[in-house]
Amino acid sequence: MDYLAINKLLIRDKTILQSIINSNDFQDDLLETIVIRKGDRIIQDRIQDIYIIEEGHIAKIFTHNKNIEKNICQAFLSETDVIWSNQFISDSKVSYEPLSKAVLKKINVNTFFNVLATHPFFTDVLIEVLNRNEELAELYAKQFQYELQDRILLLFEQLGTQISQQKFILPKGLDAHYIAAYCGVSRVSVNRVLRELKEIKLIGKNSEGVLTFRK
CA-CA distance, 208 to 193, in Å (whole number)? Predict the structure, then answer.
């Protein structure tokens, strides 16, 4: 693929990485589509591949060996985010859990970088991913300047799909377990706030049973 062809992809698609993944250089025999569901895990210290998220939300969890209540959810990954191979992440206590169903593209780490290295935007891809990681870390840190109710509402706004000026649909599977792990509190505290938000009609369920909230 030449320089001009890549530029056309960059105009069409929202990220450099996704543009290159969508290009002809990644043939079907290089990329394997896999589906993972709630209850499945990708364990960081076993990863020999790279995963690109195509659909769904995945929680990045720092696990506590003895107490699940002390697990920390550092970020929620979504479309075009990357789960890197263990060659690039040293902490062996990281796992990745889908909130419900997630569709991923899986590729061998060496193949991935051999293909990317042929593109003039290779460096930009790495910068793009680093910026995304920094953005997620900043979002996680910022929440702690607010009260718990505001933290939960900010998380809902971050993850929600906006369907009107003030109304959002939340991803399936975002329950008290993940909210508590992200906000650094117990599930009891989260359930108390969720009840309060339901009482003042800031959150509810639509006709399909999907959780919604309004600003």
Answer: 23
